[in-house]
C-alpha cells in the first residue's frame, strides 16, 4: 500500500506524545515546550487546533549529551 500524503494528508498523520516532564524548564527549551502544548500528531498540516502559541507544526529541539553545554544538555541523551 502506498500512502499519498500530498493528496490525502490525513492518511499520513502519526500519533505522538511529548514528554515534557523530562524536558528542563529553561530558556533553551521554552519554544519547544510552548509548541508541544496540544500537539498530538506528527503531520504536514501545520499547527493543530489548540496547539501552543505561535506553533507552525510539531516542535523539535537540539540537545546534547555533553554536560559542559548546560543549556542543551539532556540526561536522556547517551
Structure description:
Helices cover 9% and strands 5% of the residues. By secondary structure, the protein is largely without helices or strands. It has one domain. The chain has one helix and two strands. It has one helix spanning 30-36, and strands spanning 14-15, 41-42. The protein is elongated, with a radius of gyration of 15 Å. Strands 1-2 form a two-stranded antiparallel ribbon. The relative contact order is 0.20.
What's the arrangement of strands in the largest beta sheet?
1-2
Determine the mean pLDDT. Answer: 88
* Number of helical regions: 1
Q: Largest sheet, if any?
A: 2 strands, antiparallel
Give me the secondary-structure topology.
Blueprint (H helix, E strand, L loop, with lengths): L13 E2 L14 H7 L4 E2 L36
Antiparallel strand pairs: 1-2
Features of the shown structure:
78 residues, little secondary structure, two-stranded antiparallel sheet, 2 strands, 9% helix, elongated
Question: Can you describe this structure in just a few lines?
Answer:
It is built from 1 helix and 2 strands, in the order E-H-E. With 78 residues, the chain is low in regular secondary structure.
Amino acid at each position: 500500500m502506498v500512502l499519498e500524503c500530498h493528496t490525502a494528508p490525513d492518511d499520513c498523520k502519526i500519533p505522538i506524545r511529548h514528554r515534557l516532564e523530562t524536558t528542563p524548564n529553561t530558556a533553551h527549551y521554552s519554544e519547544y515546550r510552548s509548541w508541544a502544548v496540544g500537539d498530538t500528531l506528527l503531520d504536514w498540516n501545520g499547527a493543530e487546533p489548540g496547539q501552543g502559541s505561535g506553533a507552525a507544526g510539531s516542535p523539535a529541539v537540539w540537545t546534547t549529551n555533553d554536560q559542559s553545554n548546560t543549556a542543551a544538555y539532556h540526561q536522556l541523551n547517551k
